[in-house]
Amino acid sequence: MTRRHDPERRRRIIDAAIRVVGHKGIAGLSHRSAAAEADVPLGSTTYHFATLDELLVAALRQAGEGFAAVVAAHPALSDPDADLPGELARVLGEWLAGDRTGVELEYELYLAALRRPALRPVAAEWAQGVGALLTDRTDPVTARALVAVLDGICLQVLLTDTPYDEAYAREVLARVIPPGR
Fold first, then answer.
1. Do 88 and 142 touch, CB atoms closer than 8 A?
2. Alpha carbon distance 89, 30 (integer Å)
3. What are φ and ψ of residue 5, in 5° steps?
4. Which of 23-27, 50-54, 59-63, 128-132 has the lowest mean pLDDT?
5. Of 18, 87, 124, 159, whose CB is crowded by the most CB atoms within 10 A?
6. What is the largest CA-CA distance in the chain?
7. Higher pLDDT, 55 or 60
8. Contact 56, 119 (CB under 8 A)
9. How many C-beta atoms surround the C-beta of residue 40 within 10 A?
10. Which has more pLDDT, 56 or 1?
């Protein structure tokens, strides 16, 4: 029997794991559920990801690209003449107004790092990556504080099911940024 070449299989398994977590939560993810969702043999998932944590790391890394990509796609954030709090509030609003399931999934995977130490470095990469994008406009400590505020606002919106308030976000972000930045 010839072996079928399938260069996209690993990516399909990661995509399937993300869908499983989106439908069933992290507790519903197993090699078996990812294989069924990806329509691949069970052995394919264990070939590409020896442990469930390895699969979760890959899923978190892929899902975590969402907000960082949104931030990176807005050149006004690096424009020294742009209103940084206003731009960040607008970008956050655009992200939250998008696919809500994707935002919830990204945070579910991000928060899974509390119980799964293997995920912590990837969660830290996510926060550091967004912070690094903001250091063009502010110092590293303020960038880190801005990421924490953005996280807090997102979690409040997601957990309380309240609408995103862009004016509130802009005001809070403006209070974190030192004058003259």
1. no
2. 37
3. -85, 120
4. 59-63
5. 18
6. 69
7. 55
8. yes
9. 19
10. 56
Six-digit token string for 163: 């609408």
Whole-prediction pTM value? 0.78
Question: Which amino acid makes up residue 173?
Answer: L
Give one DSSP letter per residue of the chain, joined into a string: -PPPP-TTHHHHHHHHHHHHHHHH-GGG--HHHHHHHHTS-HHHHHHH-SSHHHHHHHHHHHHTHHHHHHHHT-GGGG-TTS-HHHHHHHHHHHHHHS-HHHHHHHHHHHHGGGT-GGGHHHHHHHHHHHHHHHTTTS-HHHHHHHHHHHHHHHHHHHHHTPPP-HHHHHHHHHHHSPTT-
Helix 120-134 × helix 52-63 angle, to 10°: 10
State the Cα–Cα distance between residues 173 and 88, nearest whole angstrom. Answer: 8
**Which residues, including other chains, have CB under 8 Å from residue 43's CB and lie 6 or more apart?**
none
